[in-house]
Every structure is written in C-alpha cells, then in structure tokens.
Task: inverse folding
C-alpha cells in the first residue's frame, strides 16, 4: 500500500492505496467523492473526467499514485457555496441532461475547455466534447448549455 | 425558487427538479452506495460461444486472501430456484421453457455467459479471484445464425427442448390475404434484415444486495426500471416471501429497456448476500455490459407486397425469423407486437405475418427502446423500394396509402382503431419544412458537382398508450396507481411505481399535480424507488405520460376534493364555492378569505373532528388510461454521402411529432432527440458483432461505436397536437418514437443519395465500409 496525498477541491486528502488503483476508484472509494462516475474504464466515454493540474483527465486511465501531489477538481468542487456555478446553472436552464450519469464528465470537460476557450463557437464546442458520450440526449441540449454559459461569462 | 410565471406548469418547460443534484455530483447511483461490511462480486464468464462445462475448480480462488466466497453454477443452483427470466415469466405466455441455471452448470451458451461468482473484500480482489477459477470446457459447435439453428441435426442449445425454436412458428392472417395477392397487379418480393445492436446505458447494470439473517429481510438496492418487478424476480428465484424482499432504487444511469426485473447476475449477488449475511455489491463493467447484459433486434424478414400499378399497397405477407440469442427474455414477445403494429397508419387491407424465434449462441435478445421497431423499418423500407419500382415519389406513395382520418375511425387491418392519428399531417408538414422541390433542385446541382445528397422520409405510430378498445372493459395499458398525501406543512407528495432513469418524472408529475391541486410546483414531491412505499408500476413502453400523468391528475383532483370538503366545514361554506389557488384555500372571488393549504391540514389534524371521520389527507388513486390514443409522427433526414470514403453526414434532421398535449416541451424534445440519436447510431455506427465462431467482437467502446456530439446534427422538432380524445388527459408517450422511426428515415435518405449508382438497401447497418460495398456492388450489376 502506498500513501497518496492530493489536493482535492482545495483541501489536502490522504489515503493508502494499492499501486494499481485508478484515480477514479481512489476518488470514489477512498475519498467518498462519488460524483465522478465510471462509464467504461477504458478511456472512451469520458464520464470519469476530472481536472488535474488544470487539465481535463480521464480518471479511469490514471493511477491514484500518479496523481500524488496534484491539484484535482471534481464535480463536487465546482459549486459556489453549495449553489451552482455558471456552467451548471446554464446547463440547468438548458435542460442539458436526462439520466445524469455522464453529466459530471461533461461538466468537467466543458469547464476545462471553456476556461481556455471562452469564445468557442458551436462547432468547436462539439469537437471539444466529442470525447464524452451521452446516451440520452442527442447532445444538442448539452451544447446549448455550454454555449449559454460561454455567453453569460462573456457578458458578466 | 419560483421558476415560471406561467398560469399553469403543465405545458411549460419547467426546469427539472432532478438537475441541481445531478449537476453537482450529488446524484445517488447504485455504485455510489457503501454499506458497512460490504463485499464485492465479480463473475467468471465463458470464453466460448457454446461449450460443455466439465469441471469448475475454484480452490485457488477460495484460497486467495480477500476472497470470501466463490459460488459455482452448481453451488448457486442448490440455493436458488430455477425458472425463467422475471420479464419473460410475467409476459412470455406459452411456448417452450428452456431449462437453465443462473450460473452455467451443464453448458455455456454465449461468450460472457456467467459461470461462477467470486465475492471478495474489493472488486479488485474479486477480479483477481476470477482469474484463479479454472474451468474445463468441452468445445461444442457454435450455433451463430438462425439458418443453422433451424437445420435438422443442428446442435441443440437446451437439453430439454427438441430443437432451437424458442418462440414457436406462428402464422396469422388479417383480411383476405390470398385474395388480395391473387388480385394484385404485381407482387414484389424483398428480403430485409435488421442487425443486432444494443442499449448501452452509460451506467451498466448493478445492485447491492443486503440480507439480514435476523429479520430474514432481503434488501436490494437496484438499478431497475421498476422496484416491484425486481422484487418479484428476487422473491421467485430465491424462494423468499415477497414481503421479505425490500427493493430500493436511487438515480439510474439510463436503461432503455435493459434493467427490467432481476438479471441472472443480480440474483446470484442476492443469493451470495444471503449465504454470507453480508451486503454484496456488483456493478458490471463495460465489457460485461456489451458482451453479456443483452442485445436487441437481429431479425430477418421475407416480405411479399401486393401492390397496384399506381402504387396502392394492398397486402403484405411477412415471414420473420428472430435471432433470440441464448435465453428467453424479450425475443419471444416481440413478434406479436410487430404483427399488430406492422400496418402502421396505412390502409393495408391484408396482412399475413409469420414468425419464429430461434435460440443461438449469442447474448440474449432483450428489450431496447421500441422493441418492435423493426416493423416500422420493414414497412417504410417497402414503401421506398416500391416507389423505386413504380417510379413514384416516396412522399406520394406514402400519402396515397395513408388511412384517412374518419369518424368512426378506420381500423388497422390487425384490429385497432386509428383514432386521432395525424400521420398525414405530420408527413405533409415535414415535407413542407424541408421544401422537397427546392431540395431536389439542389440535389441535382450538387450531383453534377460530384456531391451526393439524399432525402429520406418515414412515418410511424406508437401505441402510447393506444386507443381504448370499444369492447375491452379495461384501458389500453391496464391500470396505473398512485398514492398521494398532503402533509401538515402543505407539501403534496406523490408516490409512484414509475422508476425514472432520465425521463424527468420528478418534474413532470409534479407539474401536473401542482396545477390540478393548486399549489406551487415547489410544494410537490415525487417519491420513487422503494417497494415499501410506492405502488406497483414500472417505467417502460412509453406508458408514463398518459398513465402516470393521468393518475397524477385524477389523484390530485381526489386529494383536492378531500381538502375542500374539510375546508368547507372550517369556512362554513359550500365546497363548491371554494378553490385552491397558489397554495391557498379561498372562497371563490374573495382573496381576503385565503388561508394556506398547510393551515387547513393543521387544523384538520388538530383533533377537532370526531374520531370516526377520516382526517388523513391521503388518497390511493388508479387510472385506466381514459380514452388513450396514439403517438406518432414523421421524420425527414437530409444526408450527404461521401462516395470515396463511405462516410455519411446527416446535414439536416426534421421531426414532426404528435404526442398530444405536452407536459414539458423541453423534456419531450429531449426524449425525441435522444431516440433519434440512438437511431442514427444504429444505422451509421453500432453493431453487436459476432464472428463465425460466436466470438464477440464488440466488447469495448473502440469496437462498439456510439454517436458523439459531432455525429448528431441539430434536430428540428415541430409538435402537432391532435384532436383531444379525453376530457382531461391527452398527454401521450414519446419515449420510443425517435428510435423507432429514425433508422428507416436515415436509410431512406442514404438510398436516395446513392440513387445515381442504382443502390437499393435492404438492411439497417450502413457503416462506411458497407456503403462502399453497396456502391461497388451496384456498379458491378
């Protein structure tokens, strides 16, 4: 067992894990941050996306030990004072999601993308989110949510 | 927070009450559950499509530190009761009942068939344990297609059956089939195939089973479309009294027909929990989901069409063989629905329909969104192919064959009245929106430049719930139940057997009840997912809009009546003169008289009424679907096919749908778009592929391709609202239509794009490689 300390959503967290444990399982099982979902365990669906040192990362493809010392943001860390962030609010307003299982991955991916590309257009956003799979919505409502968030951020 | 200023919530795109938890990671899915002392299960699965299990040696696995229990097929067989899948048992009717165990004992019948379950302190250790279970198999000849399965002397999958026929051959005739064919100007013949593909919810199946040896109560936290159906399955197969099985469900990460009842794996997990007296969790991983959870479709149709020279389709004679895969779940139920629905909204005067469902060494055929959808694919394909034969326009041939809306309504040749069907209006509307003549001009110009555009149309109707049959005593979908309560804090709570997994019932049902009862939306709660408190019910078959919407409306009306009766005493007024508006009871026209509903509830509860008066604000409501009615619509796709690469781009997609009155337009449109996206995936990308030996070829997302945000266009939707049929409830189901009609729409468009090559399409799966083959094959002719 290896002791791993990470900075998660602004607070240091430590747990002892096997070397083979994925970051996704570490977040979910050891840190009880179950907002990060595991959809395929082979890096395709994007449901487990979290932000590690500023980059969107598939936490099923990264080992917990590889994340030692890193700064991680999960879906639980986005909300302002227990409310909703700009993107989350825009997604609520846009009826972005249905079953909600893919949601954390989309929110994290879009958060990372918008922070680097605040002026992205629809096609760019579609491409940026094309590594995340949603089986419920046909994507349009998700794209609309991201576009609305980008617009509100620009106007703010 | 008040969301809308509308007079009524019903009909408005009220923001979902589910979303604040889902958007912040506070959803509670089954894998999020952690119980004290909880163990984890993993399954040993068959690497063979067909084999005899000779020995299972679990000794090394049992010795592995962290492994607590290994159950082989025979271990589990000894502590459970053999039987059929709960869904099949409930709805399967007569026919062969193959004998098999929850985990393989004598034989394995598909790649992924569960053979043993390992229970350990963690999922990692359980999977380590699986590696150590040694199974000796004798290879048996795999039966991987229906033609071979039906050959005399083909290996049998089940020892207790005489052959591989699992849904016995059946022929039905409606109208004068022989006469219609004899009198036809011409008889066209087609062979049409629908390929195997599957649900793939983003969350796989899973459960946490927790048996309490002291009370004898089995608690199952399930990912299910109906907690009561899961309870029935667990009770039946584990031999527990139903009242000792408590099923709970939280958020469900999609299903589309997959998570009904109790799967063999979930039953094994429950039995393991009982054997150990400890909670056990199993959540399938993606390869298990793709290989073993179940697959859908895969039917072949030999079609004869009796048609007049000017394009009247008079009769169809269809022979269907359905590839059921290994075990009966849904495959034997589908033919009857296809038979009933095949005429669609058309005037068809005669239908011969015969079907056989055949067991093969593949994953079991399960329900997937619009399980009978292939009837629409076949019918709409036939219209396009006939149009080509006869030199007719695809729009024209459909319009000329559509049943007119008459009073009394025309009957489908299979019997049901086409009451309130707006197929014609929807088809004319999509044609108008896309402006077909303008498209044809553009198509011709682009073809001259070497670009191949195509347009496709298709129409469907869906019995959601279907019309009330004049002679039947009950409604089209049986009864739907709901318990409603008003608490002393003024909160109205609806207890429903619906088990939402993306359908937004906690929002839509609250909208209806809030309007009918007269309280703000925020004052209504919808409780789901607990067999101890919700009535029987399940989510499926697009039933909830009418059935549950209806029971919410009528139940809220009953509850309101009860409140007004007491308020009449408190107000010393007649109940008829009182109303409830915005959460307050008042004398009509006298705003000063208003007191909050909560205050009425508190006063009634304060003991001022005699003991023999029922002062509980609780009603048990039921609803039979009222007048019912059809959902339906027409879709139109415009595609571009790159004839060099075979890549199809969906340039435009328009849907004109009629699901009656909309409860929440954003929710309705989400259902439509999601279904269309699955239909686009089914045609362009998705296939549950087996090789000739029955090895599964699509067990990862690199092999089973799902549509992404770049594959699905912006989908345009127009709502038609028909003639209301019912005095109160005209909401109709809309969950399945997109998936039913998108595949024929898209295939029609692709065929149209490839018309210059003389391509005709008789199949549904058209990935780039197949498009290129079709072009090359047509060239060669």
Result:
């Amino acid at each position: 067992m290896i002791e791993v300390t990470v900075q998660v959503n602004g607070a240091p967290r430590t747990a002892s894990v096997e070397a083979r444990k994925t970051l996704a399982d570490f977040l979910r099982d050891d840190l009880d941050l179950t907002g990060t979902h595991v959809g395929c365990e082979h890096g395709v669906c994007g449901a487990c996306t979290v932000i590690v040192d500023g980059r969107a990362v598939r936490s099923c493809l990264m080992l917990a030990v590889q994340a030692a010392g890193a700064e991680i943001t999960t879906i639980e860390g986005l909300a302002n004072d227990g409310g909703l962030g700009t993107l989350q609010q825009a997604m609520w307003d846009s009826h972005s999601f249905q079953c909600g299982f893919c949601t954390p991955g989309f929110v994290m991916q879009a958060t990372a993308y918008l922070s680097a590309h605040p002026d992205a257009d629809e096609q760019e956003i579609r491409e940026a989110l094309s590594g995340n799979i949603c089986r419920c919505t046909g994507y349009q409502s998700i794209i609309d949510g991201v576009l609305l968030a980008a617009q509100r951020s620009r106007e703010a | 927070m008040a969301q809308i200023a509308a007079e009524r919530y019903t009909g408005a795109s009220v923001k979902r009450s589910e979303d604040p938890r889902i958007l912040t990671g506070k959803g509670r899915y089954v894998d999020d559950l952690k119980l004290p002392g909880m163990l984890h299960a993993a399954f040993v699965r068959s690497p063979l499509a067909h084999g005899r299990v000779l020995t299972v040696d679990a000794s090394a696995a049992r010795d592995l530190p962290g492994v607590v229990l290994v159950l082989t097929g025979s271990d589990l067989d000894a502590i459970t009761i053999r039987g059929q899948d709960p869904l099949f048992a409930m709805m399967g009717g007569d026919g062969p009942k193959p004998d098999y165990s929850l985990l393989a004992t004598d034989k394995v019948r598909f790649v992924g068939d569960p053979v043993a379950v390992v229970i350990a302190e963690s999922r990692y250790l359980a999977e380590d344990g699986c590696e150590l279970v040694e199974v000796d198999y004798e290879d048996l000849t795999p039966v991987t297609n229906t033609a071979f399965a039906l050959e005399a002397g083909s290996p049998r999958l089940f020892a207790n059956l005489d052959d591989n026929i699992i849904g016995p051959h059946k022929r039905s005739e409606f109208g004068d089939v022989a006469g219609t064919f004899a009198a036809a100007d011409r008889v066209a013949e087609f062979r049409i195939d629908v390929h195997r593909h599957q649900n793939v919810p983003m969350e796989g199946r899973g459960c946490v089973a927790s048996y309490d040896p002291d009370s004898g109560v089995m608690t199952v936290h399930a990912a299910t479309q109906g907690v009561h159906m899961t309870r029935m399955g667990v009770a039946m197969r584990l031999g527990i009294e139903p009242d000792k099985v408590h099923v709970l469900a939280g958020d469900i990460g999609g299903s589309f027909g997959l998570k009904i009842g109790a799967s063999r794996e979930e039953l094994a997990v429950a039995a393991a929990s009982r054997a150990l007296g400890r909670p056990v969790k199993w959540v399938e991983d993606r390869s298990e989901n793709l290989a073993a959870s179940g697959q859908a479709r895969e039917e072949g149709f030999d079609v004869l069409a009796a048609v007049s020279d000017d394009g009247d389709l008079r009769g169809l004679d269809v022979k269907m063989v359905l590839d059921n895969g290994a075990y009966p779940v849904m495959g034997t139920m589908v033919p009857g629905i296809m038979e009933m629905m095949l005429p669609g909204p058309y005037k068809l005067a005669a239908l011969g329909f015969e079907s056989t469902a055949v067991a093969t060494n593949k994953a079991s055929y399960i329900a997937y969104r619009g399980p009978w959808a292939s009837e629409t694919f076949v019918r709409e394909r036939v219209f396009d192919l006939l149009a080509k034969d006869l030199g007719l326009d695809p729009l024209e041939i459909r319009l000329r064959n559509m049943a007119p809306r008459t009073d009394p309504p025309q009957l489908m040749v299979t019997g049901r009245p086409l009451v309130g069907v707006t197929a014609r209006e929807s088809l004319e509307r999509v044609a108008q929106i896309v402006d077909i003549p303008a498209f044809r001009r553009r198509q011709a110009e682009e073809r001259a430049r070497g670009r191949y555009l195509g347009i496709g149309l298709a129409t469907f109707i869906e019995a959601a719930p279907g019309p009330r049959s004049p002679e039947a005593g009950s409604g089209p979908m049986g009864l739907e139940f709901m318990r409603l309560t008003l608490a002393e804090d003024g909160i109205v709570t609806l207890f429903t057997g619906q088990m939402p997994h993306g359908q937004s019932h906690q929002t839509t049902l609250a909208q209806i009840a809030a309007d009918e009862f007269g309280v703000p939306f925020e004052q209504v709660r919808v409780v789901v997912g607990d067999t101890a408190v919700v009535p029987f019910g399940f989510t499926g078959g697009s039933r909830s809009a009418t059935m549950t919407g209806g029971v919410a409306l009528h139940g809220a009306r009953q509850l309101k009546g009860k409140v007004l009766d007491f308020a009449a005493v408190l107000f010393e007024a007649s109940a008829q003169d009182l109303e409830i508006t915005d959460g307050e009871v008042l004398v009509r026209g006298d705003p000063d008289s208003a007191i909050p509903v909560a205050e009425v509830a508190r006063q009634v509860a304060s003991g001022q009424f005699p003991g023999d008066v029922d002062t509980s604000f609780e009603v048990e409501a039921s609803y039979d679907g009222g007048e019912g009615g059809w959902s339906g619509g027409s879709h139109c796709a415009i595609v571009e096919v790159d004839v060099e690469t075979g890549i199809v781009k969906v340039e435009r997609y328009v849907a004109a749908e009629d699901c009656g009155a909309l409860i929440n337009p954003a929710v309705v449109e989400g259902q439509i778009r999601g279904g269309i996206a699955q239909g686009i995936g089914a045609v362009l990308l998705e296939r549950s592929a087996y090789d000739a030996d029955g090895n599964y070829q699509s067990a990862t997302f690199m092999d089973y391709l799902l549509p992404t945000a770049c594959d699905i266009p912006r989908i345009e939707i127009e709502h038609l609202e028909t003639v209301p049929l019912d005095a109160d409830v005209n909401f109709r189901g809309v969950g399945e239509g997109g998936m039913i009609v998108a595949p024929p729409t898209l295939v029609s468009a692709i065929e149209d794009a490839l018309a210059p090559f003389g391509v005709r399409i008789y199949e549904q799966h058209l990935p780039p490689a197949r498009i290129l083959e079709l072009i090359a094959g047509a060239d060669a002719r």
